[in-house]
Amino acid sequence: MVSLSQVPTPRAASDRAVAEDLDRSDQLAVYRERFVSPDPTLVYLDGNSLGRLPVTTAQRVAEAVTEQWGSGLIRSWEQWIDMAQSIGDEIAAGVLEADPGEVVLSDSTTVNLYKLAAAALDARPDRHVLLTDDDNFPTDSYVFQGLTAARGLELRVIETDLDAGLSTEAVQAAMDEDVALASFSHVAYRSGAIADMVAITGIAHDSGALTLWDLSHSGGSIPVPLRSAGADLAVGCTYKYLCGGPGAPAYLYVRKDRQGELRQPIWGWFGQQDQFAMTGQYDAAPGLARFLVGTPPVLSMIGVREGVAIVAEAGIGALRTKGQALTSYLIDLADEWLTPLGFRLASPRDVERRGSHVTLHHPQAWQICRALIERYDVVPDFRAPDRLRLGPAPLTTSYADVWEGLDRLRRLVESGVHESYPAQRSRVT
Amino acid sequence: MVSLSQVPTPRAASDRAVAEDLDRSDQLAVYRERFVSPDPTLVYLDGNSLGRLPVTTAQRVAEAVTEQWGSGLIRSWEQWIDMAQSIGDEIAAGVLEADPGEVVLSDSTTVNLYKLAAAALDARPDRHVLLTDDDNFPTDSYVFQGLTAARGLELRVIETDLDAGLSTEAVQAAMDEDVALASFSHVAYRSGAIADMVAITGIAHDSGALTLWDLSHSGGSIPVPLRSAGADLAVGCTYKYLCGGPGAPAYLYVRKDRQGELRQPIWGWFGQQDQFAMTGQYDAAPGLARFLVGTPPVLSMIGVREGVAIVAEAGIGALRTKGQALTSYLIDLADEWLTPLGFRLASPRDVERRGSHVTLHHPQAWQICRALIERYDVVPDFRAPDRLRLGPAPLTTSYADVWEGLDRLRRLVESGVHESYPAQRSRVT
Predict the structure, then answer these.
(1) Which residues from B are below 8 Å from A302, CB to CB?
(2) How far is A345 from chain B (nearest CA, A)?
(3) Is A297 in the B-facing interface, judged by CB distances under 8 Å?
(4) pLDDT at A429
(5) ipTM confidence
(6) Model confidence at B428: pLDDT above 50
(7) What digits encode the pLDDT tens for the residues B379-403?
């Protein structure tokens, strides 16, 4: 799968012609034209926070507004009512390793984490531990704190090397038969480290625990082996690598044979067996629909379909290959240009353990981040306290973008312009 | 407040010239031009299910897509991050009787019901009853069934005359000091009957219970006296009278002095005190933000601002006056034309007890509803088992629309064309 032949030697990396050569032989280069890119000087290295706008999405949203809502009015629910399921099936087929009827769009990632974690805890009433790690995304951790506090359960938190990511051995050491649910991020939001979904799910299952994976930083950029792992539950974000638009609804996955046994706690009319009978008694729908709750935000769902279609067309295998090459190239440049300036790699150096973003430590990461955005037209991301996160999303980023971004970063730090920025935290997600 | 002088005598109602006279003297008639209305023959009597599209919304959504998302990318979160609160404040000021910092956009109505009902039950741990009625919207009832089942509490359900709506006396009779939370719809979704928010909240408070109001069918069409009532909690829908667009995010209200004492169960990063510090420990934000959860669907929020602005400009007082006149006129026509055809009023006849929609019983309501939509270009709503719901939203409906809609309904039933439709349930919300 992995073609490292594209990765140049460190010696050559700093020559811009290398980037141009790589772009010429990039099979995915054509996909960059499928996205809006109005500012040619911008280097966008934050596609892992908010993916770019597909060219077709503006038109599709406009049609949904003027034709479906404006003209069709309430009658358009005939088109909208199954959209959460049909887009879910498209994600299952084109983005994840999952079957039809196992993935559905619903709510936010956080609400989905709550629903699925609660369902799992309720399904293992004789166990009292929810296992996670300290490298999980904050909202995951908050949800788990709330659920365990309300139920008098134990939240067991594995301490992780935040640059290396979660190790399978650490999960093995923390697992026992008290664990009802083990929940981790597939790709760590700080470092981009990949957790071994197959091995970790196996460890959980050997102890009789259920698993809940957060795919927000993996879905759409690397293979997600839900089926191979036999993973029970997952949630994921559509506004990062899936380019669904700001705050677009999240997706959730429940393995087919778990759907009947699990009940989520927010009983609403979209999870009801016969929704429009409007009967008094709640009867959970038999399949995945029981994990739905209320009326979905239609206009925010439209973009998800467009983004997912492009990701599926490009293919996860090709995206993974390019993602590995792009991040390897980025690390080569960082080694040559940035290490001498006080940067240090905060991601796995092993390409097999690294997702599609690369993070660097620098004591002035916050000031550098602000100065890069405001003075050098490069958009990275800051992660407290000292991390600069660079996300060259493989669908929309060229090798020349990476060269240009790192060259500007190098020049910025050499110039010392960031020293004039006050030290403070970002409000940007 | 109420001007009944506009309501014609029953004798005159069936003369179309009466409707035209009423439209000429309608102060709100100008607002109809603020909405897209591409099909001049359509009579839309379902603005209480999905409000019409404001002319400005298409442009605002397009800007959000191409400029904010497409060009601004992640940097646009500076504009988006406080939108839930600022639109909430606009709803508080222009739609409800509430103060800044008491209303915020978040999630779906159902998820908000769950969060606020759970918070209320947790705040009254020495009480074991959640009180509601059998005329509440199904999703409200389902949420309450789920919450009380999970906590081993009693769900006490008042039996209501579904045409007359919830009586204050029935609430008084069902209330006692076991009740932790009393939750009702302000306007009943079937009949349009108004519950007496001030009196019922007073009864609950006299027993030490908290109140949670569902404003989905009242907010944007009649005054909502949250402050006068001292109401504790409320949720509401933005895609009906507020014309925010299909599935647009709901709002929630928490009385200022209750915010500190209440905790909702879904702990997420948008409810965290210092969201972007991304610390490991969840600390609920001090004010209303603690009732937020995850990343909001930005594109679906844009329309809410536009719809709310028009409602606020028209004014709830004027909308209430026109709503009373429109529904009274509709009932006059129904008395004259439809009662002889087997229809029977399923809404309060007393204009003071009636919201902005009118419902009629007919044994073939389902078939009539389908035939009206498909053959007569009139869009009403069906409510099982035998109700035809007519929602002449005061902001976008003319008296001539009401005349035309009821005339077509009369002609349809006289023709018997609906007899050829099979009896079955609607999938349309």
Answers:
(1) 299
(2) 21
(3) yes
(4) 41
(5) 0.95
(6) no
(7) 999 998 999 999 999 999 999 999 9
Confidence of residue B228 (pLDDT cuts 50, 70, 90): very high
Rounded Cα–Cα distance for residues B358 and B361 (Å) = 10
Return the residue matching tokens 């908290």: B210
Q: Chain B 371-390, CB below 8 Å of chain A: which residues?
A: 373, 379, 381, 383-384
Residues of B in contact with A107 (CB under 8 A): 107-108, 111, 294
For the record, the structure tokens of B69 come out as 């998302």
Contact of B111 with chain A, judged by CB distance below 8 Å, is answered with yes
Q: B270 in contact with A at a CB cutoff of 8 Å?
A: yes
Position B248 pLDDT exceeds 70: yes
Q: How far is B118 from chain A (nearest CA, A)?
A: 10
Identify the pLDDT of residue A5. Answer: 53
Chain A residue numbers with beta carbons less than 8 Å from the beta carbon of B298 are 245-247, 300
Query: Strands, DSSP E only, in A22-128?
Result: 43-44, 103-105
Domain coordinates of chain B in residue numbers?
Answer: 4-55+315-420, 81-312
Cα separation, A22 vs A7, whole angstroms:
8
pLDDT in tens, B53-102: 999 999 999 999 999 999 999 999 999 999 999 999 999 999 999 999 99
DSSP A17-43: HHHHHHHHT-TTGGGGGGB----TT-E
- The arrangement of secondary structure in A4-55+315-420, i.e. its CATH architecture, is Alpha-Beta Complex (3.90)
Euclidean distance between CA atoms A390 and B135, whole angstroms: 54
Minimal Cα distance from B114: which residue of A? A266
Catalytic residue among B240, B258, B305, B387: B240
Q: Which residue has the tokens 């000031």?
A: A367
Percentage of residues of chain B with pLDDT beyond 90: 93
CB contact under 8 A, A73 and B65: no
Half-sphere exposure at residue A331, Cβ-oriented, CA atoms within 13 angstroms: 23
CA distance A200 to A170: 10
B240 is catalytic: yes
Interchain proximity A295–B379, CB inside 8 Å: no
CA distance A369 to A426: 9
Residues with Cβ within 8 Å of residue A349, at least 6 apart in sequence: A331
Three-state helix/strand/coil letters over B336-368: HHHHHHCCEECCCCCHHHECCCEEEECCCHHHH
Does domain A81-312 sit in CATH 3.40.640.10?
Answer: yes
Shortest CA gap A297–chain B (Å)? 4
Residue B425: pLDDT over 60: no
The answer to whether A296 contacts B108, with C-beta atoms less than 8 Å apart, is yes
Cβ atoms B381, B46 nearer than 8 A: yes
pLDDT, averaged across chain B? 95
Intervals of chain A under pLDDT 70: 1-12, 424-429
**3-state DSSP: chain A helix, strand, coil percent, rounded to 5?**
45, 15, 40
Nearest C-alpha of chain A: how many angstroms from B421?
18
pTM of the model: 0.96
The beta-strand segments (E) located in A215-272 are: 233-236, 251-254
DSSP element (H, E) containing B200: helix B197-206
Does residue B423 carry a pLDDT above 90?
no
Residue listed under structure tokens 């009947």: A260
- Quote the pLDDT of residue B14: 85
A61 touches chain B (CB under 8 A): yes
Coil, helix or strand at residue A354 = strand
B299 near A CB under 8 A: yes
B276 is catalytic: no
B414 CA to chain A: closest CA distance, Å? 25
Q: Tell me if chain B has a CB within 8 Å of the CB of A295.
A: yes
Query: What is the predicted pLDDT for the residue at A276?
Result: 78
Length of chain A: 429
User: What's the start-to-end Cα distance of chain B, in Å?
Assistant: 32
3-state secondary structure of B254: strand
